[in-house]
Write a structure and sequence with these properties.
Layout: H1 2-16, H2 18-34, H3 44-60, H4 64-67, H5 79-87, H6 93-119, H7 122-133, H8 136-139, H9 148-165, H10 173-188, H11 194-214, H12 218-242, H13 245-249, H14 251-260, E1 272-274, E2 277-279, H15 288-296, H16 299-306, H17 308-315, H18 319-338, H19 352-370, H20 373-397, H21 407-410, H22 415-418, H23 428-442, E3 456-459, H24 463-470, E4 475-477, E5 485-489, H25 490-496, E6 501-508, E7 511-518, H26 520-525
Parallel strand pairs: 3-4, 3-5
Antiparallel strand pairs: 1-2, 5-7, 6-7
Amino acid sequence: MYIIVLMTKMLQVVKNHYLLVLFVFFYLLFSLFTYKVVPIGNSEEYRYLRGKETLEHFIYGQFTEKMLQPIPNYFLYNLYPMILVYLNPNFYYEWFHLMNLAFSLLGFVAVYFLSLEITKSRRLSLFSMLALVLFPGFFGQLAFNPIDMPFMVAYLWVLYLLIKYSKNDSNHWSTILLGVLIGIAQGLRQLGLTLYIVVVALDIYDYLMNRNETKWKLTRFFKERFLKYLYIFITANFFMLITWPNFAVNFFKSYIWYLFVGSNFYLWDFGLLFFGKFLENHERPWYYLPFFQLITYPYFISILFLSIIRFFKENLKNRTYFVLTSAVIINYISYFALKPVLYDGIRHFLFLVPLIVLISVKHLKDLLQLIGKKYQLTIILLIIINLFGLAYYSIREFPYQYVYFNKIGHLFGNPYKLFESDYSNTKYREGAEWIRDTYITENSKYDTSNPKEMLRVYVCDNAYAVDYFSHKKFLTVIHKEDSDLILCDYRNKLQSDYEGNSVKEFFIDGNPVLYLIRTPKEYQLL
């Protein structure tokens, strides 16, 4: 009897959310058919190795000497990579990418339910998910980004739980779940700490919207809520500590360091390519993030989001709208106030993309209700044209479509020469495969398994990916003087000015982003 009741409820859920079920089905189908062609990002190996070390610490008690080293020698929160390594101990990157795609699906599910809350429309909820799939700079990097992607998932689910359960007292089960998710979010990125502000902001909002009913003073209201805040904070930090052994070595010192590491991230200072010049950290302009959002976001998303000037006031009574806009505003304030060391375009703020898309979809609904049918059809047609353009680009450039600039970016010149483009250096996979399958075939003297006679390639970045996809048909070397070929991305080539004849260029959107150079040594042998 219990099984029949359970199945009846499940069928009802499927019926109510059949569009979500269809999306999940096709998303998983897409993942299963494409995960093997996903490239390796240049920071993946480092993340998974740190996850492996953390896993060995928990299981075997090894690497304890590294645990005792002062932060920030081992400054990463490795829970998610640790779980992936546990499930994939042989480091098959294809499996890592499949698991990343599967986990990112939880983010899309959160977007669906958040959209349902804000628009009350299942069709618009489906549209929100599809808009993210056709957002090249977002969807294109989910499979090879084991940090910003899980942070995005955790952040979205915290916001959804707040919308659904924030009015409950501290004894409700959601308090513990909120604490755990906030703990994961703040461990993955310091920006997760902004969730505490969102929690308080939502309570103030609820108080102001219902003060005529409660008739409480604000001080009494916060006194009643303080215990819940304390429970969430303790749960979040306890969970973060038990899953982050380095941090737990010296909690207070680590916490103070962690609060400000974003502004003093000395481990990254390789020169930021911005408007064709290499800038040091202190030279990074204040408008770096909004500018990159302007030149990499789809047009209709940017335009609809900026219409917040028109629709903000009338949407304030929408509780979900308030939460999403508050999260965006709080993070922008944090960005401008703390001036974090940013690079790689929008990657560190990847979690803002779903929030901005959700707000934009709500504005679209408001706009369509405001204007006549003639203009409605015009707007819908323009959005469809934009989506078809994005779909064409994504299919043509797959699996490297995360490198995307809209036409605004081209107004300043060639954005692939002016700004960071393939910042995860994923194109090295194509370069490695071409050397393996074409160059060695055309130069048969290198078609050997003798290490002394094998082709030697110096790689400017992402050497692990090149070695992984070489299938051991050639060797990667750490000194360019020992190499026959140099495989180099545009950024490193521009900085280093390597000598030699170009053998082949590898393109994204018709622009060379990776170069294969024959060294003088190799040229003399031919």
